[in-house]
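@channel anyone free to eyeball this complex?
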Amino acid sequence: MRASTSISLAAVLLLAAIGAGGQEAPAVEPISPPIEAPILKPESAGRLEIRIEEPPPAPPRRAAPRAPAPPVSDPGRARTLDLEAGLAKSPALYFFLDPAASVLEVRSRGLVLDRVPVLGLHVLHHHSLFGSGPTPAPELPAVWKVKDGPGDYAREVIAPDALRPYEPEEKRDAAPEADGDQDKPIPTPPTVYQVPLTNGWALAILDREPRTSFPRRYAQAVRAGWRGVFGQHPSRSPLVALVVSADDARRIHHIFRSDIAVLVASGSEP
Amino acid sequence: MAIQEPRSARPYQSYVSPQVYVAPASAWSRWPRRLLVGLVGLAALAAAASLLLALVGGAYRVSAFPAAPTADLGRDAAQAQRLADRARNRIAAAQPRGTWVVVDTYRNRLRVYRDGGLLREALCSTGSGIVLRDPRDGRQWVFDSPAGERRVQRKVKDPIWAKPDWAFIEEGYQPPPAGSRDRYDDFSLGKYGLYMGDGYIIHGTIFQTLLGQRVTHGCIRLGDDDLEFVYREVPLGARVYLY
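replying in thread with the prediction:
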């Protein structure tokens, strides 16, 4: 009787694992960047209400004020500043992740362009279901580089089959089209995605806390095993999971391009 | 002579006949039991398979993000102070001064700052991200607004757009020869143009209803009033940050 109960439980878990396949977005699974529904219809753009609905812009802020700077006795913070000085030499964008302040900033030349509140920050390691293993911490402070950005996603391609001989606009039969195709929906970026890094780690951007109860992990393990049977081996690299709001996750998606730097700070701002 | 029935025959028959009668009913009652056994067997098989898959698959476990530095940094406070001072000076030297522009290509907003204060925020249009391919030779263009820092290299009133090949290919036409009059367009860019290099321009638009959307070929389009303000207030050499 007892054995049959445990068998039924296992069967239920299996069914849950298979049924949950498309619904869950368990944070820790690699997810291909989807292209989804439209954001705005062209006719609705440019109206005043859109401007009002937007949150206020990030206040302009210098990352390191020129006014008398407070003393820095924290070697971690000093090293962070040194690493940022190296990044500020180039005109490229970079991310600044400050775990102490729970914030992810988009910066260039030390200037804060945008700020994203980080609601949760975790390290995730892949283990066998019942086993455990080493859980090395990421090196801090450090500059990580994005290997393949999800921002380099599949794009809409316009590829005419052939070109007609040129005709001046006034001689063409049909009226010229507006710049850009007004009827095509603009793809919405995803809210859960992974950003592989060159150091073997990956950033997982999530719109909710990672779910790691045993049934969830069991379901995840079954799915991973199932994929393995079919030769699809998902990445098992250790993850740094950043939990942000869904809108913020979409907003920063396109900035994660190959080679963009992510400076991870250590220590607190004096 | 009459044959006498054995005495024991009656009790024997009465014992046997119920057995014969009951037999078909007990055969039917085995089906639910067989079904149950089959289901339990299937469940056991599925459980074993799922366990095997789970053991092969593995899963992620959460641990805390380290609060302290994990790299070896030394503990000399005076050295840390010197390092921090040097780094702050380098960062301060890299930062913009005076007036600068920030373009948010997700929200399609252009902001003008002066000495750290926001002067103006404007609705703009930015790059669509579409890829255009030339069917003749496979050349392709990606209509993204650039990311990172640029500078205003040139400011032009009543700019004329020298239309590149993609402007014709996008409409399905072969580009006219270089220098042709059809290559020049004196109305599409609006009244002012601020050139940022590599063909990227902050300019006006005849498609005012598309402001706030990602529809351009990489340039930044503004409404007439905002464009005039930007032209007037943003000096040559000013830095433009696009993200």
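from a first look: The domain at 97-242 of chain B is CATH 2.40.440.10 (L,D-transpeptidase catalytic domain-like).
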